[in-house]
Amino acid sequence: MPRGDGTGPSGQGPRTGGGRMRGNRPGAGPSGSCVCPSCGTKVPHQAGIPCYSVSCPKCGAKMVRE
Fold it and tell me: 35 pairs with which residues across the strands?
């Protein structure tokens, strides 16, 4: 392990893979959709605007990230 930091050679070790921009959580990236948990309506996600702050155009419920 270089410098003893636990990363190992490039592409190996405990700190490879994954990353922040993955999954259904804040900071999931600019692409994807916002989905209404009540009626299932999908709208494209807009970068910089969290889905939880967007209201469903059909029923008015707050959207969630898909």
Answer: 42, 64
Does the model's pTM come out above 0.90?
no
Tell me the C-alpha distance between 7 and 19, whole Å.
Answer: 15
| Separation of alpha carbons 18 and 49, rounded Å | 23
Rounded Cα–Cα distance for residues 50 and 32 (Å): 12
Total domains in the chain come to: 1
- Strands 42-44, 33-35: pairing is antiparallel
Per the CB < 8 A criterion, the answer to whether 51 and 64 are in contact is: yes
Q: Would you say residue 66 lies in a domain?
A: yes
8-44 pLDDT per residue, tens: 666 555 555 544 444 555 556 678 999 999 999 999 9
Looking at residue 27, its amino acid is: G
